[in-house]
Amino acid sequence: MLQExxxxxxxxxxxxxxxxxxxxxxxxxxxxxxxREFYGFAPEFPLTDESEIVRTEENSFGGKGTTYEIxxxxxxxxxxxxxxxxxxxxxxxxxxxxxxxxxFTPTIADGLGEEILDNGYAVASLYYEGIAPDKDxxxxxxxxxxxxxxxxxxxxxxxxxxxxxxxxLDFLLRSGxxxxxxxxxxxxxxxxxxxLFAGAMDERFSLVISNDSGAGGAALLRxxxxxxIENLAMKGSRFWFxxxxxxxxxxxxxxxxxxxxxxxxxxxxxxxxxxxxxxxxADPKAEFLCCVAxxxxxxxxxxxxxxxxxxxxxxxxxxxxxxxxxxxxKGTHYMxxxxxxxxxxxxxxxxx
Length: 352
Fold this sequence. Notes:
The chain is α/β, with parallel strands linked by helices and about 350 residues long.
């Protein structure tokens, strides 16, 4: 049933060979396609990490954690940028696993930091507008100024925010404060798109979590309802992507990829996609089908992708056994405690 639906929509195959080096060559080709045609290229010149802890709160969250305020500072031969972040580590835990969480507010994990600590995880919180503002400012502010631009394939804001997550990861990996092999990246909505792109491009993330990310994230674009490329190309979001994205307005069938190419780059690492049953704009059906189609990439490594019945899930169902996890929460466009509960369960099951 599900494979028939993918064929009906004309979803292309990812085409990952079973053997190296051919497989890595194809992965690199996909990375180039995604950057050139949709998200834009991040600067590729040498970077110097000058990040440091600027303040420590020894007893945050009523003594449950220690919070480090971090100034992420990045220098190239041509430019400099900086942005704030925090890392909160549970008291009494040495090198805990961590969630790198993109947030819509400066509040740690958008207000759920204490629950993350209570479940035995550190949380690195990164406020996205502290990196570059979520508006069409002609890339004149924050990290948007870090390199020269062209109107075709220069990075959009999603690629900028994703790049910044990798720069925070640089600091986390050398800090000695958390488990370097168990860093998950997570985001919701446009930040779900960001987390997915960050995790696809940076293989140091052990788990990639996309919540209600929709078009430009975990939802297949061919046959999608709700948010489509024509919506992404409107005034309020066109700056999230590179200029070449606009070539595909109402021409999704001409895309040289679809969302499962992006999701498939996470393979063979762990991927988790969360949807909401009434989130018609994101289109949970398209997100679930993306997970099905991305299984091809995992199979090329000889591991299972999505472990699910050959049908669409019912609201409230979760499929947690495979390298691709998925749940369909009842309700609308939101990331809350019910979603986080499933993320915790999945991480414990797979030790990632």
